[in-house]
Design goal:
The protein has 739 residues and is an alpha/beta fold. Among the domains are: 50-140, OB fold (Dihydrolipoamide Acetyltransferase, E2P); 260-459, P-loop containing nucleotide triphosphate hydrolases (Rossmann fold, 3-Layer(aba) Sandwich), CATH 3.40.50.300; 469-509 and 536-654, P-loop containing nucleotide triphosphate hydrolases (Rossmann fold). It contains 25 helices and 21 strands. Helix 7 packs across helix 8 and helix 8 (216-247) packs across helix 23. The chain is globular and about 95 Å long. Keywords: ATP-binding, DNA damage, DNA recombination, DNA repair, DNA-binding, Helicase, Hydrolase, Isomerase, Nucleotide-binding.
Length: 739
Amino acid sequence: MVWNGAMGALDEPLKELVGDRTAKALADSLKLRTVGDLLHHYPRRYVERGQLTSLDELEVDEHVTVLARIEKVTLIPFRGRKGDRLEVVVTDGRSRLSLVFFNQGWRQKDLKPGLQGLFAGKVGLFNRTRQLASPDYQLIDSEEGTSAAEQFAGRLIPVYPASAQLPSWKLSLCVEMALTKHLADVGEPLPAELRAEHDLIPLPEALELIHRPHSQAEKERAQNRLRWDEAFVLQVALAQRRAADSALPAVPRRPVPGRVLDAFDARLPFTLTDGQRSVCAEIFADLATEHPMHRLLQGEVGSGKTLVALRAMLAVVDTGGQAVLLAPTEVLAQQHHRSIVEMMGDLAEAGMIGGSEIGTRVALLTGSMGAAARRGALLDMASGKAGIAIGTHALIEDRVQFADLGLVVVDEQHRFGVEQRDALRAKGEQPPHLLVMTATPIPRTVAMTVFGDLETSVLDQLPAGRSPISTHVVPALEKPNFLTRAWERVREEVGKGHQAYVVCPRIGDEEEPAKGKKKRKEEPEEVGGADSEERRPPLAVVETAEKLVKGPLAGLRIEVLHGRLAPEAKDDVMRRFAAGEVDVLVATTVIEVGVNVPNSTVMVIMDADRFGVSQLHQLRGRVGRGSAAGLCLLVSDMPAASAARARLDAVAGTLDGFALSRIDLEQRREGDVLGQAQSGVKSSLKVLSVLEDEDVIATARAEATRLVAADPALEAHPELRTALESLLDEDRAEYLEKG
């Protein structure tokens, strides 16, 4: 991030600096449009003169810039036709890389054995040998390369994220022009006392050193300063949001003795865990204040988040208010409604025959409900008869009204857009309290950034009665007998009176996705480089169910469940599965969260390598929910040495969701901590790592909170205010405002 001192200087279009043609290439290929964009396009890595690039680590299809020495140059005429190709072999002393130029024999004058240069292009494969076809290059040790030699003399050579149109050294020249002309225009967003306390160099100096370091020590000093800028400005934005939230009015919702909550607690057939009691106390303390609660409840699979949320909802009902639970899918909304009504018993049947006098009603609203049921639910919510409403995005529609909305519970928040959450919160006369739940464990530093405007509660203790889950990888291609044994284990569990899930990545009645179609967000990167295109399509629910019925699970009661079934059919299948009338449920990830059938003991996940680490952890949480031990089998065709198998081995090796979430983030690359999926803009983080820089983020959060408390409008810090405006473009500001 770079911010203006002289107003607008760093907003200057790049065509004023580098000319129309280069500016267009910068914009089209790297999304760099202003001088400020260019100055914070930092080098990806650095090489020292004489320190050659390790060529055996190059990835096929990657755009690379390598520093290597020319070993051999050969001009080969084409057979039977005009033209030739120039083959140049470069080396790092251990491995070799081929460069090939077509009909450019004149390059022999430049490219002589023994010379060292920078070579840039896309890594391809030809005859199983890695090569760069017609690469750009700049020699460093020749007379022609004297300008490059002078440019890099005594410095580390920066290697920038580049493109086919703009190799790294051309970016270097552009950055050099920007530094020469505009470095004096860079503002200073960090307060002087903070820079002094944490020994941070001025921002202009940091920018010069990140692009032109003479040593590793200079590079690290620059990175440390820029890391602080990213952490601190973001935490100031979040601190301002927390301060604004704390100033909003809300109706205090203090539990009322002798009402629904007390009656519900008295009927619980178990005692709450210490963790559940502690988190409930935090939530009740928030609900009792005159400002809206903004709390994130994260917990391990099966830790009892729904029970905690229900107790909070009942506490609000006891004050005469209403609570709403927003679920991402109809299956999950119906599951929540069914389990909450069962847990409450006659307390959920107010006004009905046999209903409790102190009870309430629990309304369900989904998009596919019949007209009569829909009218009844809408009337119960508008009149206040339904103290609790559960539903999907259908709850957000304009016609949905509440008598006194006091609490909004959002389940699996990452499945909802900002506008959906905001529309639901707007249905209260005053801002309702907000509880966000996620079953995906989030590392502390990610919680401080992605959910930095929320207080965080963690449930990491499983309730008594939850059974252990053992997880094993089934290498179906290498050892087909292991897959045979997996189906035998399913039959054995069903023989004991238990039930099983079989999960597939695809439904199977859809058309094949178009070639090159973008992957779903949660689907991991394919493994195998150039060979990935040759992989078979993912296994599908419909086809797998047919094969199981006719093959290894013949005779068992098998049903399918996926998102394209009619709502009535989905609900019917889930009811019969929960009632024990179905032995094996073959499903997509529609059962990933919230589905609770304690009698299910085994899950087989087909093509497990096509799911993310956290998703696999969520899925296996559907088994082992009763007194019998759970078993999760991860079936994969991927070879033992592949990265995909390493992911599966990690899942099999631990039940610690927080450890797995770190692995998941490391493998996915962190993305934008403001929530790329929610804000739809590119990452603001260039140097800061939300996984590795915990100390910086925690300290920046404390410093930002202190500064905003003393100066909420940042009147004494105009440069910091400018920095915030630069960070919070229209999309980001909207995201934080509605968060």
